[in-house]
Amino acid sequence: MGLDAGAERRHLLVVDDDAGLRELLKEYLAGSGFRVTTAQDAASARRLLEGVHFDLLILDVMMPGEDGLAFARWIRSRAGVAGAAPILILTARGAPDDRIEGLRTGADDYLAKPFEPRELVLRIEAILRRAGSAKGEEPPVRLGRCQFDPARGELTADGAPVRLTEAETSLLRVLARAAHGAVDRQQLVGGGDASGRAVDIQVTRLRRKIEADPSNPRYLRTVRGRGYMLTPD
Fold first, then answer.
1. In sequence order, which residues have a C-beta less than 8 Å from that of residue 26 and are 6 or more positions away?
2. What is the distance between the alpha carbons of residues 45 and 199, in angstroms, rounded to a whole number?
3. Does CATH number 3.40.50.2000 belong to domain 7-135?
4. Burial (CB count within 10 angstroms: exposed 0-12, middle 13-18, buried 19+), residue 94
5. Tens of pLDDT along the chain (233 residues)?
6. Please, are residues 182 and 169 in contact by the beta-carbon 8 Å criterion?
7. What angle, rounded to 10 degrees, do the helices at 42-49 and 68-77 form?
8. Which residues, in sequence order, are CB contacts of 71 under 8 Å at separation 6+?
9. How distant, in Å, are the alpha carbons of 88, 89, 91, 92 from that of 115?
10. What are the domain boundaries of the chain?
């Protein structure tokens, strides 16, 4: 349906309290080549965001509990890549003032209901193109049966998603960008949990997820006196 190359890999999160609309959007967007996950409210979406990176979020505004605008502000308050996720507001509130309010939250686009499904896809494609141009494309790294996409922060094993914590994603991203080169433990500590021991724990957990034999690592290696090194295929 005219999708950009690689768009079939884009993972979208649809957050809407209308179960019927969620399923319709999931079916249509999946048919357009996207991977789609849905959530019924902001609380459910927050839990998903703890372990999964999404290429774009589609948010309803009028939801019970935390509304879509407040949720969008929370997303933008997050540090690093997590706070830069593209957002499209999809809502029945289509007055000009509502659109302005939605865009002020940091959303990338605002589409009022009812809408043409094809227009939604075109807007999603446009947002993803802009996001890709802004950050540049980072090729995935192959780790045996696993693959890690630094740009999306997503790890898969035999094509199936592997859950990563935010700290594990950050650590693996740094190592992937310096592939085949040693990275000092202090650099891996960064500005988060300033503990070398915390880095060691995260490395141990990552090895369980990517190594065939975590006790004899092939891909995530220790560099004595320095730190760690990722050696992709």
1. 14, 36, 38
2. 27
3. no
4. middle
5. 444 434 445 889 999 999 999 999 999 999 998 989 999 999 999 988 877 778 899 999 889 899 899 999 999 888 666 788 899 998 887 677 777 887 888 888 989 888 899 999 999 999 988 876 555 556 789 999 999 988 778 999 998 999 998 888 888 888 887 788 887 776 676 434 445 678 888 899 999 999 999 999 999 999 988 889 999 98
6. no
7. 20
8. 15, 42, 45, 46, 59
9. 13, 12, 10, 9
10. 7-135, 141-230
- With a CB cutoff of 8 Å and minimum separation 6, the contacts of 143 are 210, 219, 230, 232, 233
What is the strand order of the sheet 141-143 is part of? 141-143, 146-149, 154-157, 160-162
Q: Give the residue carrying structure tokens 């302005």.
A: 100
Residues 6 or more apart whose CB falls under 8 angstroms from that of 173 comprise: 81, 150, 153
Residues forming a β-bridge with 143: 146
Q: According to CATH, what is the number of the domain 141-230?
A: 1.10.10.10
Please, which contacts does 151-159 make with residues 24 or more away whose CB atoms are closer than 8 Å?
152/11, 152/53, 152/55, 153/53, 153/81, 154/11, 154/52, 154/53, 155/209, 155/210, 157/209, 157/210
Contact status, residue 144 vs residue 212, Cβ threshold 8 Å = yes
